[in-house]
Write a structure and sequence with these properties.
The chain is an alpha/beta fold. The protein has 3 domains: 119 residues, no CATH class; 138 residues, Rossmann fold (3-Layer(aba) Sandwich), CATH 3.40.50; 167 residues, Dihydrodipicolinate Reductase, domain 2, CATH 3.30.360. Helix content is 33%, strand content 23%. It has 12 helices and 22 strands. Helix 3 crosses helix 4 and helix 6 packs across helix 12.
């Protein structure tokens, strides 16, 4: 084959691949809006992605499983999914495509394969949609609003109905809040529409009404005035941290459950995927989603402890600065945090080491922890220095973590990175709370000491963990195939 013939062949293949990717995007959209079926690719979001994004995700998937994941095969399986009857669900097309081409695939055709793999879906589990109220509208509150509205679909799960803020809601304030929702310096443009209804003190987010309520005290609010009943309140203010204070929400009309987006006292601190099944949403009213760092390190610590046993260890977090710090040097109640956040690395404390034991009691007293705040606005890194009971190697340890990232209860929590070039900005926008840096892993010569590098988007990844837990609490989790 001549050089020009080879070139023409490459052009034809790229055209066919991009055409197939366009069909992929259309079917993904149809499944979501017509059937409330969400498609992901090895846990990566594929909604609102362009052609190049989808092709790159397929390339990553092939590297991850060390076997080509073809867009043409993905489209063929998606067509079949679209043709059969399934209840609202969340399906990993990457895993399905990988399994279809596995060595032990004895299915005669794609339809037989899909029907067998998804036979556990049944006809649906009678999900009752849940009203949601955001109490607070800061960094986490706005990301929660973005994700809740982006994933509303036909409204079968969580329905964002209202946002509560302090102070008067004037037209100027409402417009400012709308602009903060539309555009974010770290996370970019909101992939949706935001219109303001000044008269009714509301926003139309993706065409759906979200009321803004002004209140200084949770118990003074009557949510039923807005048609909101039996609501789950996501308190992201940080003002209420214990059972008594958070219980004030339950005195408001229309609220039935409360989820705190921070570590809490006297209430269950939950890392979804690790210990959420230990708590019954029917018998408890108040929950905590723990901290972003706890959500990042706990899944990895569980993997290591379950597989190799942890004797002791230290956790050092290299954490992006937050609005708790000062822009310029000023007074602060905590040591060192008064210094300018964008100019200094700041040693400070973190409770993550102790907090892990609330989800993994067997690690009580085994871990110490500290933190360094650094001059980046988002994207953090936890360094786990662990002494283990059973010897391992870097290759063996990476294989263990990769297996947990591919299948099991922690597939939503752990993303496995293959890149030697990974830096903090690369992980912004990652929905998994923990990104395991496989190439940076260090194992001592005797195989008993590990140094693990766990990246995390301390805003976006944590917000997704909050929503996963909220769905569990609200009992609106769909059938999933990961």
């Amino acid at each position: 084959m001549s050089a020009i013939q080879l070139y023409e062949k490459e052009l034809a293949f790229q055209a066919d691949r991009r055409k197939a990717t366009t069909e992929f995007i259309k079917i993904v959209s149809d499944l979501w809006y017509d059937k409330s079926i969400e498609i992901v690719l090895f846990k990566n979001q594929v909604m609102d992605r362009n052609v190049s994004d989808i092709i790159n995700l397929h390339e990553y998937a092939g590297e991850f499983v060390q076997k080509p994941i073809s867009i043409f095969d993905s489209v063929e399986i998606l067509r079949t999914i679209n043709d059969i009857h399934l209840p609202p669900s969340k399906l990993d097309i990457g895993k399905l495509t990988y399994e279809y081409h596995s060595d032990d695939n004895n299915y005669g055709n794609v339809k037989a394969f899909v029907l067998d793999k998804l036979k556990g879906a049944g006809s649906g589990n009678g999900i009752t949609p849940k009203d949601v109220v955001l109490y607070g509208f800061g960094r986490i509150g706005r990301l929660l609003a973005r994700e809740l509205m982006a994933k509303t679909g036909k409204g079968n799960q969580l329905r964002l109905r209202a946002i509560v803020t302090r102070g008067a809601i004037t037209p100027e304030i409402l417009e400012k809040r709308a602009n903060l929702l539309r555009t974010d310096s770290v996370h970019g443009q909101f992939m949706g529409t935001v219109d303001v209804d000044f008269k009714n003190k509301a926003m139309y987010i993706n065409g759906t009404t979200v009321h803004f309520i002004e209140a200084d005290s949770p118990e003074d609010i009557d949510y039923t005035r807005y048609g909101i009943t039996n609501a789950l309140v996501l308190d992201n203010t940080g003002a209420f941290r214990d059972k008594e204070a958070l219980g004030r929400h339950l005195s408001s009309k229309g609220c039935s459950q409360v989820l705190l987006t921070a570590p809490g006292k006297e209430i269950p601190n939950i890392v979804h995927g690790v210990n959420h099944m230990e708590f019954d949403p029917d018998s408890l009213k108040i929950f905590s989603a723990a901290s972003c760092t706890t959500n990042a390190i706990t899944p990895i610590l569980k993997v290591v402890d379950d597989s190799l046993g942890i004797k002791k260890g230290h956790i050092e977090t290299i954490h992006a600065y937050t609005n708790d710090q000062n822009l310029v040097d000023n007074m602060h109640s905590k040591y060192r945090r008064g210094r300018a956040a964008a100019l200094n690395m700041v040693i400070t404390e973190t409770g993550a080491g102790k907090a892990v034991a609330k989800a993994l009691p067997q690690l009580m007293g085994k871990l110490t922890s500290n933190a360094i705040r650094v001059p980046v606005p988002n994207g953090s890194l936890a360094i786990l220095n662990l002494e283990i009971n059973n010897k391992t190697s870097k290759a063996a340890l990476n294989t263990i973590v990769k297996k947990y990232a591919l299948e099991g209860d922690l597939v939503e929590q752990i993303k496995y990175s293959l890149s030697n070039e990974l830096v903090s900005t690369d992980i912004i926008g990652t929905s998994a709370p923990a990104i395991y840096d496989s190439t940076a892993t260090i194992v001592s010569e005797d195989g008993k000491n590990l140094v693990l590098y766990i990246w995390y988007d301390n805003e976006f990844g944590y917000s997704h963990q909050v929503i996963r837990l909220a769905k569990y609490i609200a009992k609106v989790r769909r059938y999933t195939y990961y």
